[in-house]
Amino acid sequence: MPPPKNAMEIFQLLDKSNCRDCGEKTCLAFAGAVLRGQKRIEECPKLDRETIGRFSDSPRNQDDVLIELKEKIATVDLAGAAERVGGRFADGKLTLKVLGKDFSVDAEGNFFADIHINPWVVGPYLIYILTTKGLPVSGNWVSFRELRNGKERYPLFQKRCEEVLKTVADSYTDLFDDMVHLFNCRQVEQQFRSDISVVLLPLPKVPVMVCYWLPEDGIESSLNLFFDETANENLGIESVFTIGAGLAQMFAKLSLRHGY
Ligand code: SF4
């Protein structure tokens, strides 16, 4: 599919319901944002995979982005980057802990990992090595909305991440205990008056806290994710989104597989 010449070409692909799930007020506004490169076509949850695939063929697809990132890794002094990224360098490889497991890359962009190498991990992992400022984690938690450029992306983040995790947590509340053991995360003291608070570490300086409130007195349960206030500098909003959505998918699949 050739690259779209104007917003109308993109608009024609959309379902025109103006549902706002993408964070834009109308489908036309969304089409304009995609044309300007401010949104990605896949941020409209109403589009099927085939349309997204056709659309992303002509601009850069995910594989192209990954190849580009790997080429950039070849230009990085991995040994020198180790301290900044909170990893260690040995035998020609830079190793970071990803959800408690070793995940390494060498100068040619080859991966070595104790966990399944998912695209939602690889992209943010490489971007983190290339761009993180490596600020120390502050301990001040903020919502996705409060991160820079998070407000406009929040409706989609809520749908793809928080709502998915809440469904899993509602069906299997002990999941949080399993998360602690499976992914080497920390159960922390109650935060924001939540019933359960768990901190995951998808990248060394990018903690993610999951807070879950049980249903009570006719009020339904809720679940929110919180990030360290350094998340914009240490990773960037796009990759924070990717990690949140990826975690949610992973837990949804785990819960299905184990029949929760
Ligand atoms: S999510 Fe899709 S259908 Fe809904 S307003 Fe945005 S572009 Fe339109």
Could you please describe the fold and organization of this structure?
41% of the residues lie in helices and 18% in strands. By secondary structure, it is α+β, with helices and mostly antiparallel strands. A five-stranded antiparallel sheet has the order 5-9-8-7-6. The chain has a four-stranded antiparallel sheet with strand order 1-2-3-4, covered by helices on one side. Strand 8 and strand 9 (222-228) form a beta hairpin. The longest helix is centred in the last third of the chain and has 21 residues, at 237-257. The chain is globular and about 50 Å long. The chain binds iron/sulfur cluster (SF4). Iron/sulfur cluster (SF4) binds next to helix 2. Residues 14-15, 17-22, 24, 27, 30, 44-46 line the site of iron/sulfur cluster.
